[in-house]
Amino acid sequence: MITFKRLDHFHICVPPERLDEAKDFYTKVIGLELIDRPDHLFSSPGYWLNIGNVQLHIGVEEALPRSIRHTALEVTDADAALKHLQQP
């Protein structure tokens, strides 16, 4: 049996031309904190962000024609989250 301590990070991919748009969404709209990423270790661009005690890693890959990939985040107040996302 494996005993897990916690989730360390999750990784999502966006098309290269939408990387900065994704960073802006997660930092400016959602309000996540951008953190240092050791870019010298990677051959492609990306961003790392804090989300609670877990990290979100955003990388790039070419867009797929269709995908069911998704990430689900639980919030403490769904109504407040919805209200925040509906702000202009």
From TrEMBL:
* Record domain VOC: where: 6-88
Spell out the InterPro entries in the cross-references: Glyas_Bleomycin-R_OHBP_Dase, Glyas_Fos-R_dOase_dom, VOC_core
Q: Which residues cross the membrane?
A: none
> Can you say what this protein is called?
VOC family protein
Organism, by scientific name, is: Mucilaginibacter glaciei
